[in-house]
Design goal:
This protein has about 375 residues and is α/β, with parallel strands linked by helices. The protein has a seven-stranded parallel sheet, with helices on both faces. Strands 10-9-8-11-12 form a five-stranded parallel sheet, with helices on both faces. The chain is globular and about 60 Å long.
Amino acid sequence: MSEVSVIRVLAVVSGAFGELGMAMYLLEGTKACARLLLPPRLYQQNPALNPHSVASYGCASDITRELLHHRPQILLLMSAYLFDGGGLLKLQDLVEILRQAKGQGVAVATSDPFLGLMLSPTQQKFSGQYGAELQRHFVDLQGVLGSLPHVYMAPIPPGPGKKAFFNPRAVISDEEKSKLMDSLKQKPLSLAERPHWLFVISRVDYQQQCTLRGRTKVEGMLLNMMQKCVLADRCAVLIAPAEVCQSLAGRTPQSVTLLPFCGYAVYRALLVTAEHVFYWNLLSNSYFMRMANFGSAFFFDLGHMVRYFPAVFPLFLHWFYGNIQPPLLDLDDALSTIVLAQHAQNQLDTFAPLLSAYASLASPDAMLASLLRTEQ
């Protein structure tokens, strides 16, 4: 089969913001004619994702209708493993979607936040109160998804059905970065001229921190971080659940920006232009964007994925980080500009060899074309 110059892609995104980021990273700059389907909350934040068309979905029939209307050559599920977790699609819904796609001759692939662990022989992988229930759920899922191609944004070992890719458009030029910085100084963010530090905590990680420490202490630590950021003569941007922002509003210095989550375009701009980025989840997809642009990133916690699914941590550390764990900061320590700068320099020394491994992967266009060849 000759390579198709323009490939029609339908990308269905779960409720996970990281999966939206991966979809955008995969599609950016490709020749694909893409349509993204987002669950209502993500669609509310991202009603436009140029140059792609966007729509919302709430049930399986919305997706099968799009299959008939858009007539894609490839259906990307981002990620099929996570649809049920957000109450979006049940197992039988997924089976019906795959049946319809197969009947139309559509190539189907799923992203894989578990780095292939679900493809290995069944064993207990989940921890915590709901470990056994999760294990049963994913064994059932694997019966449906096991034969699908799995796509990855890291240089994992090659194998049947594994499709790893690297998009060089992830590397932002100085000119584009300058434009993004200028856009952040405009309304509605109106960031000051000073460098900004970005703090990102998801709802599930915030809830876990509250369980471990108590809500009062967690919010007190967040306030303390914002104040120390301002004392360092930096702007602080905190992306957190709406109830956190509401609780902190009026208690933070004027140069602190509180965002109850935001759209992809704003997040990308904040992410690539920040002097430092701070997470509560070591397995964050957006860390890759920082690494690709030689930007520092720091972590206050390993995060929910490691707690729920500890088996994924060593694989993620190996393939995404080259077996070098980024620094975990003590929540009670001062955010010293000197200490952070030293940590940032140490990270720079590890990025170059990692990026050379990434750059050896297939381009998104080549990976999409290979999915079509696989279907043939």
